[in-house]
Design brief:
mainly beta; 56% strand; 29 strands; 6 helices; 22-stranded antiparallel beta barrel
């Protein structure tokens, strides 16, 4: 691998923009918005606290009301994302109760989320049901995922292996926008500018003409770096096309591309700095057909290419080492959904294959090249049985992998509606996570291969309630117990390398509480708290670097006309060694405000302002990965 060639490579969107433009010429514009199947009963419970009455699809891979979901689920909508002035998915996830994220810098920086104390490599991140988690590393960089094209994010806290396979810690499912169905052409353009030339420039165009629809988005995020060696320069593009079939089915095609160059801060102790570049291309094609009045069939195909390069520079000697990861995958899912008076039964199968190439060049040691692949297949089924106020959701899935064996994931969920204001929830499930392929085959240098490595497993219990019985408050609480077995542990080898083994048994238990008020004088208050006790079940010692306490808070103002503002805060206490010199002295608060200055039938103009880390608080787990101090940004947004 030519390090200089890779390091100096310039990225641009010209090939992708050309492909998007060609698609727009070949396919008529316009569409019918994807029609989600209606559930048997309307969601009446807690309605005043759900601005978006759409159904959720992630728990069983078939739309259902939140009141019938046994899992602990959080939904955040496009409106909420806009109110946060979020740049990437990482900016959204830091506001979610129960989600812990190691914050590495400003907009677009590397970010890896955990859920209820889980490791980031145990969380499955999806875009429209397609995994963004690299098979070779088991990480998903949410700091590289844009949010302008996001309609909603559905987060399941706890294992969701019955529906999705490898997801011991939970699911983050990003659902992208569908074409606008009321107009032939509508869109948005925005630009923001902040300190250190931090700018976010976006545009989208969408519409419907006859049976065809389109959604097109493009954007650029740039920053000279809010911290030393923390610059970001990324480009994004996304296209979705749909066609409504005469019999009520539809065909959907999407293409997403993102690329960037980033500085990942400096390590003064190691006297080194780190840089990374990435390219990510995702395509999907799916068809949905009603076979009968009660049975629907769906087939989806997908492919993804991810290239990730990382470089380490020593302050004294220059470039020390470089690595190139080329990760390519393709897959297919088919499922049948049968709906009758009391049931909504889903039966499906899926297949995925991933091929990866890892090249490394380390000064003074040499070069290595590792190639491998993983193939995964699964069959799954689940049912939603509605018996008056009682909903029962049994499910089971069988997964086979070519690298780490097989796993059976059963689950059972129950919800009970008490009147129109309260829902009781309970769920038990087995789940798993497939180890990163590099731990199984090695990397040629530091990692010794372990071909006998097994999946990490979990048995999870959850119970909770959600109520608006108190006149002015919405309250949600969940108690959870996740018993993890065959957890991965790094052990040194005789030749100085590291080999991962399935050795630990862990327990993550705790409680999550959320409280939200109804609007009063156009103002809403919300607070969330999560306590997680992560321990080794054999030694009873606390798991290091696990998030123990998480607090989120928000104050929102919306006059329902022209003015919006919110003050959002976050705090995490990490169980980290004092030698890391982490700081947990204060919450980090972000202030966001927007004012509409012009509106007519065709155009709306809005000015917005954000003050990040308003009180200049420190909140980081490691002194080499500090959070930025107070900084400002503002911009203008046009909706037409």
């Amino acid at each position: 691998m030519d390090i200089r060639r890779v390091e100096n490579r310039r990225r641009n969107l010209i090939p992708v923009i050309g492909l998007l433009g060609l698609s727009m010429l070949l396919v008529p514009t316009g569409c019918q918005k994807y029609a989600w199947a209606q559930a048997n009963e309307e969601m009446r419970v807690l309605e005043m606290f759900y601005e978006d009455k759409e159904l959720v699809v992630t728990p069983t891979r078939d739309p259902k009301p939140v009141s019938q979901v046994a899992e602990n689920i959080t939904v955040i909508t496009a409106k909420e994302i806009r109110n946060l002035n979020a740049h990437t998915l990482a900016d959204v996830l830091v506001t979610i109760t129960g989600v812990q994220q190691d914050w590495r810098g400003g907009p677009g920086s590397l970010a890896f989320p955990g859920i209820q104390g889980s490791n980031p490599n145990q969380v499955l991140v999806l875009i429209d049901g397609v995994s963004q988690t690299s098979a070779s590393s088991s990480f998903a960089d949410v700091g590289a995922i844009p949010v302008q094209n996001v309609e909603r994010v559905e987060i399941i806290k706890g294992p969701a292996s019955t529906s999705w396979g490898s997801s011991l810690g939970g699911i983050i499912n990003v659902i992208t926008k569908s074409p606008e169905e009321e107009k032939a052409a509508a869109g948005m353009a925005s630009a923001s500018l902040g300190e250190r030339f931090t700018g976010d420039y976006r545009g989208e165009l969408t519409g419907t003409v006859g049976q065809f629809g389109y959604y097109l988005y493009g954007g650029k995020l740039h920053s000279d770096g809010l911290l030393p060696h923390n610059s970001v320069d990324t480009d994004r593009a996304y296209l979705k096309l749909t066609h409504q079939l005469p019999d009520g089915g539809d065909i959907r095609f999407s293409l997403g591309y993102s690329a960037g160059d980033r500085g990942d801060q400096m390590d003064p102790v190691a006297r080194a700095s780190y840089d990374n570049t990435f390219d990510n291309l995702l395509t999907t094609l799916s068809i949905s057909l009603p076979l009968t009045e009660r049975i629907d069939w769906d087939l989806s195909l997908r492919s993804q290419w991810l290239e990730y390069d990382q470089f380490r520079h020593a302050f004294d000697t220059g470039l020390v080492d470089a690595s190139l990861l080329d990760d390519r995958s393709f897959g297919a899912t088919t499922k049948l959904v049968w709906r009758t008076g009391d049931h909504s039964l889903t039966v499906g199968a899926e297949f995925d294959r991933g091929d990866f190439r890892l090249e490394q060049d380390v000064a003074g040691i040499g070069r290595s090249s590792v190639r491998s692949h993983i193939a995964k297949s699964a069959i799954f089924t689940n049912d939603t049985i509605v018996l008056g106020p009682l909903t029962i959701t049994p499910g089971i899935r069988f997964d086979h992998t070519t690298t780490n064996g097989d796993f059976l994931s059963p689950s059972l969920g129950v919800t009970w509606g008490i009147g129109e204001h309260t829902v009781l929830r309970g769920a038990v499930a087995r789940g798993f996570t497939v180890p990163p392929v590099t731990l199984t085959v090695g990397d040629g240098f530091a990692l010794a291969p372990n071909p006998g490595l097994k999946m990490e497993k979990v048995l999870s219990w959850q119970a909770g309630f959600e109520t608006s019985l108190l006149r002015y408050l919405w309250l949600k609480s969940t108690f959870f117990l996740h018993d993890v077995s065959d957890a991965l542990v790094a052990t040194p080898t005789d030749d100085g390398r590291v080999r991962y083994e399935n050795q630990e048994k862990q327990r993550r238990q705790g409680v999550e509480v959320e409280v939200k008020t109804i609007p009063f004088l156009f103002t809403t208050l919300g607070v969330g708290y999560t306590f997680v006790d992560s321990t080794d079940r054999e030694t009873h010692q606390r798991i290091p670097f696990a998030a123990r306490q998480t607090v989120s808070a928000i104050i929102q103002f919306d006059d329902l006309k022209d003015t919006r503002a919110n003050l959002a805060g976050r705090y995490i206490w990490w169980n980290a060694d004092s030698s890391n010199q982490g700081r947990y002295s204060a919450m980090v608060w972000d202030l966001n405000a927007a004012q509409r200055i012009y509106r007519d039938e065709r155009l709306q103009v809005e000015l917005f302002l954000a003050v990040r880390n308003l009180f200049n608080g420190s909140q980081y787990v490691d002194t080499t990965l500090r959070n930025p101090g107070r900084w400002f940004e503002g911009g203008v947004r046009f909706d037409f």
